[in-house]
Amino acid sequence: MAVFWIFTVPLIASSLGVVVAKNPITAAMSLVGAFFCLAGIYVLLTAHLVAFLQILVYAGAIMVLFLFVIMLLSLQDEVLGVSRLKVMQGVGAVGCIGVFAVVYRAILASGGRYMPQVDEGYGTVKAVGRLLFTQYLLPFEATSLLLLVAIVGAVVVAKQRI
Amino acid sequence: MVPSNYYLALGAILFTIGLFGVVTKRNILIVFMCIELMLNAANLTFLTFARQGGNMAGHAIAFFVIAVAAAEAAVGLAIVIAIYRTRGTLHMDEVKVLRD
């Protein structure tokens, strides 16, 4: 239980930091911290492969891409844009709390159950890899096509003239 | 041991924070980061239910979500660069050609 709170409190704090940050670089760095804490939560859920992918792909690749774009754009203060009116922020907060209340009611209704014991190889690279290459082979291959399309699309959109 | 509804509540909190950012922030980059936060909340919920059910289907789904998020970030940031190059702004309310 203590380990759960050790990861949860910084996770919520750093994800709030993403929302309140004025500077995009501050937001990106607190998002990196949130991803690391979330990887710890995944380890608690015995999802070791997904925890490593979280650090490698999210905190490594995707956030480096974000930081590169932020550095590349060399943003001045007037470009960053002023936030919406306080009234709109309040309305948005009320709506989000409403969504949270609905979800939280559903979670309470489901009731908290303690996790069952799982066998030795649960969530390891071997077990998840076997699942990906047998039952989920077609989605797995479709993912490679998706990434190819994303590469081509990114080059086409960002290139100055084709 | 932590009961499963703690993890589910944590996922709901993360999703709500991300949703709040998407609704209220007007900087395209920060809106993108909040979308990543919401995808991660969905991943956490998938992994919790996978752990509770004792099968690993949720892990495969989380893998696909991470791949989709990578593709989304690549294309989305390319669009951000294109918008900045043509309009010189990252403010979402000023990008409204299709709305007018």
Automatic annotation (TrEMBL), chain B:
Gene3D superfamilies: 1.10.287.3510. It comes from the Bacteria. It is found in: Cell membrane; Membrane. It is an enzyme of class 7 (translocase). InterPro entries: NADH_UbQ_OxRdtase_chain4L/K, NUOK/Mnh_C1-like. It catalyses: a quinone + NADH + 5 H(+)(in) = a quinol + NAD(+) + 4 H(+)(out). This is NADH-quinone oxidoreductase subunit K. It is a multi-pass membrane protein. The keyword Cell membrane applies. Its EC number is 7.1.1.-. It holds the Pfam family Oxidored_q2. The keyword Transport applies.
